Amino acid sequence: MRRFGLIIVLLAFVGSVASLMAADKKVELEVLVWKQEATATYEAWAKGFHKLYPNVTVTYTGVGNYDEQVKARMAAGTLPAVISIPGGNYGFLLPKAGVMMDLSGKKFLSRVKDGILDGQRLNGKIYSLPIDLAAQGFIYNKKVFRDAGVSVPRTWSELFAAFEKIKAKGITPLVIAGQDQWPLGISVMTIAVPFVYGPDPAFDQDVLSGKKHFTGPEWTNAMSIYAKLLTYANKDRNDLNYGLGNQKVATGEAACVIQGSWAVSGILSYNKNAELGFFLPPAMDGTKKNTMILGADSTIGVNANHPDREWALKFVEWLTTKDAVNMWTDNARTFSAMKGARANFDSTAIDVQKYADSGVALYPLPNHMWFLPNVWSDWSQKLQEFNAGKITANEANQALEDYLVDAYKAYSKQ
Fold first, then answer.
1. Of 50, 92, 93, 374, which is most buried with the most CB atoms under 10 A?
2. Does the global pTM surpass 0.85?
3. Domains of the chain by start residue, with CATH
């Protein structure tokens, strides 16, 4: 009996030593990120986690073309321990490939706001932690609006009247940055929501079943609004990049941009004193009910096959703590997906919260629900052609339908 007790003591001692050795082991956690606007947050997270665990250094690798680089690193077997992936169906590539650790049942998931995890379920399981919530709408320079004597428009008629006054001041009413292509899809989809997805949230499913079409009246109306908006936009809309578009709003050279709330930090990086606000695209003139795009944009998970996966899991869990959440809202300037997170970190957030509190309908980020990312990129290229007058709105809408239907077929076979 004594011999048995001695063995237990020795095993406990060896286990504790091994644990201490593991804690002292130098670990470098590489985090693959796709959300470039949150650089300041990533740096704050790295410092905060290193302070708690001095043996762990967190580094970040940003990717330009997310899908191509992820697939390349997956094929080479070089994916890092921690991987940031887009929210919704867009981010299911890695879980489908068996790369991501199943986080289902982890206690820290209870800190996520109600309903947000639903959009992250793949076959009932959760493979990544939602980090933020993004809203889409008009981000505007309040000083430009104030100097032009205009207020936030409630109808499209009011919006175009406001744009006329701003234009008369020699300022570009709306900046469109189409060189990077993806912002074009953001702009048009944001406009389309009150026309299409507010009245029929299942519109895309109706298209896939053949009941409706993108060439129908809903998307035709949305594209007619977009065409009119182009008359108030910068002439170099296909040549201006995302960063320079943000800069124009920050400096007051342009009045507003149609973007997601993730763009706020980028705009402020050019002018930290810029007075920014947020307003929704108006519902169809004569109707009061509006719809706001709001959903998980960025999520983060653990490479289940990485040797440092336990440290990676500890890092992901830490991201749900109050300190890490505050680092997100203070630096990224977008809503956190965690319960109790601050919602008044800047004026645009306050505006978004007012809309949410007013009872507007909410719709998840559409570009993350369109099954495969090539739908978004290919359609955005067609919007470039529309901007240049090379194709009609009907042709752009038909291309979108073709891309979505083909992508869904491919997605269903995976």
1. 92
2. no
3. 2-130+298-333 (3.40.190.10), 134-295+348-413 (3.40.190.10)
